[in-house]
Amino acid sequence: MQSVGAAGKERKPFYRLLYVQVLVAILLGFLLGWLAPGIAESEWVKALGDGFIKLIKMAIAPIIFCTVVSGISHIEDASKVGRVGVKALIYFEIISTLALSIGLVVGHLVRPGEGFTGSVDAGAVAQYAERAAHQSSVEFILHIIPNSLVGAFADGNILQVLLISILFGFALMVLGERGRTVRTLVDDMGHAFFGVIAVIMKAAPLGAFGAMAYTIGKYGPSTLGNLAGLIATFYITSALFIVVVLGIVARLAGFSLFRFLAYIKDELLLVLGTSSSESALPQLMEKLERLGCSKPVVGLVVPTGYSFNLDGTNIYLTLATLFIAQALDVHLSLHDQLVIIGVAMLTSKGASGVTGAGFVTLAATLAVVSPALVPGMAIVLGIDKFMSECRALTNFIGNGVATIVVSAWEGELDRSALTQGLNRSVDTSDIEEAVTTG
Fold first, then answer.
1. At how many degrees (to 10) do helices 334-347 and 311-327 cross?
2. Domain for residue 9, yes or no?
3. Which residue range(s) make up the domain with 394?
4. Burial classification of residue 41, based on how many CB atoms lie within 10 Å of its CB (0-12 exposed, 13-18 middle, 19 or more buried)
């Protein structure tokens, strides 16, 4: 008899799990590239990775439109709660900007992509670089404005789609109750397009196999050192962000981050297993209410945070973008890096709920910063799954901390319930209890 999960559904055999399939595909791709580089460099093998990336790019524009419009238009809900919504949004944007900046700083200091043999034709890179160098600020601004609404989507110009999305989102926000029907339609369309991504992700093993085989076959096994370096850099950076940044924020709010992590350990394991922070959303909201946060604050901050407070995704976006730029030897000016922060702030909205959505937002960010970077997605395709769990965990922890902080800021936090809840979570561990009483 098969075991039954918490949701009452039968667990899939391990060989049907996408995670396992991608791991096997990466291993097979590595072996093919190492043992038969001639076959691995063939156009058919390369087409597997390139085709998967084209499928992802195909869905970028509508997904970005739906998530950004939904995120902005739902600010209307925050206005009903008054100061709480404003404080939550201020906190989200400050922490998100900090996460994006940390990813950039670490990328410059560690330089994980340096020494990686580029996979983009040098002539193409030079062409894009020359075009960017001769583009004035006025031309750049005019380039953001599309000739038509449909044209932006047809051309796949993400920057123009972002402009349309922002304008449309604010228009729905101003309409208020009259825009509810359209807002609901956009939300449903967003879920539908993420469903498209879920279908596309079924082909991830083939894409990962092709990308890994071609990369190893063309540039040799030594490239794995750079990829492993990116994974290690991302995990260490995320861990430091949680411990240092969120730890300081938690301490200023009057609670221990480590006790809070112990309190939500079951939810963290669920997020780790599903690679999606949204999988544990109901449990997180219930636990935060039991921890002393008021129901209205929890009901506002947690769902809004899933669109506006994606710390792990933000670190990943800037770090991965710099990695690809370094690997392909594409120079990014200060202006380009500011564009990365600004665009990633928008493209990351709504990316936490679906496994693989981080890869979609990376594609959108690269397309805006420099088209020469987009083919570099094939470099990180094979290892993206290894970083999705860390993204989801960091997003999840960040939203939990944000809810307690905003509750305390607004005076809607029951301190006695907070202390009792966190102490009870520590008491469940004999080691923690020994340290506390000792």
1. 140
2. no
3. 14-437
4. middle
Question: Which residues lie closer than 8 Å to 363 by C-beta, 6 or more apart?
Answer: 53, 56, 57, 60, 374, 377
**Residue 30 amino acid letter:** F
**Contact in structure between 267 and 284 (CB atoms under 8 Å):** yes
- What CATH number does the domain containing 153 carry? 1.10.3860
Site of tokens 């075991």 = 3
Instruction: Please report whether residue 265 resides in a domain.
Output: yes
Q: What is the total count of domains within the chain?
A: 1
Residue among 86, 306, 305, 60 at smallest CA distance from 162: 60
Q: How many CA atoms does the CB half-sphere of 189 hold within 13 Å?
A: 17
| Angstrom distance (rounded) from CA 272 to CA 274 | 6
Q: What is the pLDDT along the chain (438 residues), one digit of tens a residue?
A: 344 444 444 566 766 776 677 778 878 888 888 888 888 888 888 888 778 767 877 777 787 788 778 767 766 555 544 566 778 888 888 998 899 899 889 988 888 877 665 444 444 444 444 444 444 445 545 666 777 778 778 776 666 777 788 788 888 888 878 888 888 898 888 888 878 877 887 887 888 788 778 877 776 776 667 778 888 899 999 999 999 999 999 999 888 899 999 888 877 876 765 556 665 676 787 788 888 887 777 777 776 777 678 888 889 888 888 888 888 877 877 888 888 788 777 666 555 444 455 666 777 777 777 777 777 777 777 677 677 778 888 988 998 999 899 888 878 788 888 888 888 765 544 334 433 344
Helical ranges in 145-202 per DSSP H: 149-155, 158-175, 180-200
User: Is residue 5 situated within a structural domain?
Assistant: no
Distance CA 355, CA 121 (A): 31
Q: How far apart are CA 107 and CA 77, in angstroms?
A: 37
The per-residue b/e assignment along 245-280, b for 16 or more CB within 10 angstroms, e otherwise, is: bbbebbeebebebebbbbbbeebbebbeebbbbbbb
Three-state secondary structure call for residue 4: strand
Evaluate whether residue 2 is within a structural domain: no
CA distance 240 to 312: 11
Q: Note the pTM of the prediction, 2 decimals.
A: 0.64
